[in-house]
Amino acid sequence: MPKTTASAPQPGRGLKLQALFPLAVGQVQLQPDPLDLALQLQAIRELQAGADSNPDPGCAWTGDLNGVWQLDRDPRFSALIAGLLGHAWSYLEQLGFDRDRIALHLQRCWPVVSELGQVVGRHHHPNAHLSGVYYLNGDGSGRSGCLRLFTPSALNELVPGLAVGHGGPILNEGPAAAQWNAPWFDLAPRAGLLVLFPAGLEHMVLENRDANDSRFSISFDLVLTSPPCPTPGQQVGEYLAPHPSAWTAVPADRIREKG
After folding, report:
1. Is 136:80 a contact under the CB 8 Å cutoff?
2. Are 131 and 218 in contact (CB under 8 A)?
3. What fold does the segment set 26-146+188-226 form as a domain?
4. Other Cβ atoms within 10 Å of 223 Cβ, number
5. What is the Cα–Cα distance from 106 to 81, expressed in whole angstroms?
6. Which of 57, 100, 152, 224 has a CA positioned 20 to 30 A from the CA of residue 90?
7. Looking at the DSSP assignment, which residues form a beta bridge with residue 184?
């Protein structure tokens, strides 16, 4: 009988890539009332009190570093922010959270104003669990500074650093790189756009290059805890902090060392 040889498999035939472990970034486009919007922009200018940046002149003015971190308690913004927090509940439910087994707390809420040439440096919010940003203006072009969300774990680049570029072998302009090895995602501000993302996600705001427009937004941080315990001794959720109503404050001057 004639000797036969096995045919070699065709390279790449039948190979499919499966996307696992997606990052959940929520977006909803709202339609702000023009009159309300004008009043809110004016109110933020008043809250700035003449300041135009944080201590670093190249950094946008952020209310949290300037004593304006409870914007939700300002009657000019309270209704707006209450509506935004309703979308935060929707975000959690779409992630699979049981609304009856968690409590959601607004930890802080502050305005951000970026002038020409200003940025917000790369950072994350380790004090919180869920973060959001609401844009008061922007036309979707990104001229006033995109929100840049960084890839949490770039496992697909295989060799660390290749996805950033600098002459590496990954074709950064191709669709494959955008899907599997993008080092970041840029989101352009639009008036009325609400964005929600995990607070631990590294992010920044790119430079405002629009000489004719300041960039206005509202940021906020949320914390998840167990719900209030209706009866003493009721079990709280594993890994979740107990509800703040069950906490006991410890005065700093209760015990003082002598001698």
Report:
1. no
2. no
3. Jelly Rolls (2.60.120)
4. 17
5. 10
6. 152
7. 150
